[in-house]
């Protein structure tokens, strides 16, 4: 089969599509014919050796996947050959076939295409869980999104509007800000300008930010925290800027703020019932069209390395997927 391979210490520079042996499912695993897989920033970190969990080379990157079951290993009871499924593989999805633990897969609802089903994994789950379960957003609240043009951020724009919030999107360039506005944001604020703090406060108004979703970190965290109103909820999701911020806790004291963290695996482990409810609701929104993900890049498997490098450069906005068959 054909697969994108990361073969050396050069990370993204050492990506290439190669012929490799077909995987075989072991106990508790199923084998999928991959139909679509999303390309996420985390995939690029794993390939570049900068993720907290290191994967020995050579390996095939790719986490979020949708496809059709072609074989099942021993002890598998939930799926049969021919079933349409989607889920998270962690690595291996950027290939014609991938084996995935059965427990990490879900049946794809009728009416939900493979291209949207593969998006029901980490990015849209992260946006849904953080808004609904972590921040507990309410209609009419101000929701500030840092890194709003990315995959998680654009998902949060769409979901925030679906939940009746007023969305203030923060991004780094005029093109990204225009994308956020087109995606539904009520206000857009460039966070790379020197007056970011003042602009953000003005966009939030006297009420301040009720919720901040931070996928970026770095120098932008403190101004966003300062923009929260009394009782605001600040949700830490990631550090795309590359720097873990240090914030003055006196702001939390004076504002009565709450700083919360979200990591998809930990949330699943500690709140399995709530995570399941959220996933069912998210899949329903994708299936009936209430959510229309902005797929701004579609690549073939042969051009998967280009897709990875584009996402890694953070010049891409919206959602990028690889369509395999």
Automatic annotation (TrEMBL):
SMART domains: PKS_ER
Ranges where the Enoyl reductase (ER) domain occurs: 10-322
InterPro entries registered for this protein in UniProt: ADH-like_C (IPR013149), ADH-like_N (IPR013154), ER (IPR020843), GroES-like_sf (IPR011032), NAD(P)-bd_dom_sf (IPR036291), Zn-ADH-like_protein (IPR051397)
Matches recorded under Pfam families: ADH_N, ADH_zinc_N
Residues annotated as signal peptide: none
Protein name as catalogued: NADPH:quinone oxidoreductase family protein
């Amino acid at each position: 089969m054909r697969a994108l391979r990361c073969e050396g210490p050069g990370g993204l520079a050492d990506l290439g599509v190669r012929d490799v042996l077909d995987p075989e499912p072991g106990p508790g695993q199923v084998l999928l014919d991959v139909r679509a897989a999303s390309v996420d920033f985390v995939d690029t970190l794993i390939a570049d050796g900068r993720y907290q969990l290191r994967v020995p080379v050579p390996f095939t990157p790719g986490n979020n996947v949708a496809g059709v079951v072609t074989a099942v290993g021993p002890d598998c009871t939930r799926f049969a050959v021919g079933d349409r499924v989607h889920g998270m593989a962690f690595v291996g999805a950027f290939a014609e076939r991938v084996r995935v633990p059965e427990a990490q897969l879900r049946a794809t609802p009728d009416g939900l295409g493979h291209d949207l089903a593969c998006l029901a994994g980490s990015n849209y789950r992260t946006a849904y869980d953080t808004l609904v379960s972590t921040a507990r957003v309410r209609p009419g609240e101000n929701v500030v999104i840092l890194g709003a043009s990315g995959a998680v951020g654009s998902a949060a724009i769409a979901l925030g509007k679906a939940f009746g919030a007023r969305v203030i999107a923060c991004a780094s360039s005029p093109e990204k800000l225009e994308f956020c506005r087109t995606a539904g944001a009520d206000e857009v604020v460039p966070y790379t300008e020197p007056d970011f703090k003042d602009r953000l406060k003005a966009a939030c108004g006297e009420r301040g930010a009720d919720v901040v979703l931070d996928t970026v970190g770095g120098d932008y965290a403190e101004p966003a925290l300062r923009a929260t109103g009394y009782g605001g909820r600040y949700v830490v999701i990631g550090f795309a800027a590359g720097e873990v911020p240090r914030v003055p806790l006196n702001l939390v004291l004076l504002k009565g703020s709450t700083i919360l963290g979200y990591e998809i695996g930990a949330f699943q482990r500690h709140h399995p019932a709530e995570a399941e409810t959220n996933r069912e609701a998210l899949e329903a929104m994708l299936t009936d069209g209430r959510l229309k993900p902005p797929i701004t890049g579609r690549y073939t498997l042969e051009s998967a390395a280009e897709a990875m490098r584009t996402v890694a450069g953070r010049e891409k906005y919206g959602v990028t997927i690889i369509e395999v068959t």
